[in-house]
Design a protein that fits this description.
heterodimer, A: 87 residues, mainly alpha, 55% helix, B: 204 residues
């Protein structure tokens, strides 16, 4: 993870974040499921690590992960809708 | 409370503009079975849910729907980026354009603004969960209709396909939620009283 480029790391974060959301919903209605609980442990741990590296190396993903260097970094990177269609 | 995460739930990177498609897809933002209605419905209903697990389902799905709203709004933004006046006039988009330019406004494909009249919060868990099951199916079929329109637009197709799949999962979770509520009622009196209101309710 430490050596991943920005795009690959974001892909990993997005897919892991989705897995955690999906496991969370499943666990809401299956709160005792040992397989669900174990998977949640693994993926939420992976997500935490990946987000930490991304925010240190690239840009903040939430208002709690802003590492400033003289100016407010939260508003420096593009917003999620400001990608795509360059035409 | 909520915290914003500066990324989409699923990537949206649309390389070709298509104003006609935007006119249709905006219905999943502000239409009768759109994402704004979905999030408002679940986040309103949760306060009357007696079961902590079911309140969790409504909170988490309601939150995810806010993320879907952002995905649909992103699709609209990217589909209408740098449109020429010629493209606007030739597509059905001009009726939206005259009031909103290329801004994002919650409206149905037919131009009806978003209304809370499209959702319910009855204070009755059984009635609300039945509405939620129907809502997921209605959103699913709207995505089916949209998918038929964007077969030649792979960037749009993938994102819509993801959103459609989520409706199916939410439907499943709401079905389990309904069963949990019913399992805690007197089986002879499923519909005899509102478990969140009437004193005679045997659940909880």
């Amino acid at each position: 993870m430490e050596n991943m480029c920005k795009e690959d790391l974001m892909n990993l974060i997005q897919s892991t974040n989705f897995t955690v959301i999906e496991l969370g919903l499943y666990l809401d209605t299956h709160p005792e499921c040992p397989c669900g609980l174990a998977a949640y442990e693994d993926y939420s741990e992976l997500l935490k690590k990946a987000v930490k590296i991304y925010e240190r190396k690239y840009e903040p993903l939430s208002i709690y992960g802003v590492e400033n260097d003289g100016s407010w970094d939260w508003v420096q990177s593009p917003w999620p809708w400001q990608k795509g269609c360059d035409c | 409370m909520w915290t914003y995460i500066k990324m989409l739930e699923f990537p949206v990177n649309i390389k070709t503009t298509n104003a006609t498609l935007a006119t249709a897809i905006v219905s999943q933002l502000g239409g009768p079975d759109g994402e704004k209605g979905a999030s408002m419905r679940y986040l309103s209903q949760r306060y009357a849910m007696p079961d902590k697990r079911v309140a969790g389902v409504l909170t988490d799905i309601g939150t995810e729907e806010l993320g879907h709203e952002e995905m649909v709004a992103t699709i609209i933004t990217q589909l209408t980026k740098n449109l020429t006046m010629d493209e606007i006039e030739k597509s059905g988009f001009y009726q939206y354009y005259v009031d909103h330019t290329t801004g994002v406004y919650p409206v149905s494909a037919a131009g009806v603004p978003f209304s809370a009249a499209t959702i319910q919060s009855t204070g009755d868990p059984i009635a609300d969960l039945h509405e939620d099951l129907a809502a997921e199916q209605k959103a699913r079929l709207t995505y089916d209709n949209i998918l038929r329109m964007c077969k030649d637009e792979p960037d749009v197709y993938e994102a819509i396909k993801f959103l459609r799949a989520r409706e199916m999962v939410h439907y499943q979770r709401f079905g389990e939620s309904l069963r949990m509520i019913q399992d805690n009622l007197d089986s002879k009196n499923f519909y005899a009283f509102n478990p969140s209101f009437d004193k005679g309710a045997t659940c909880l």
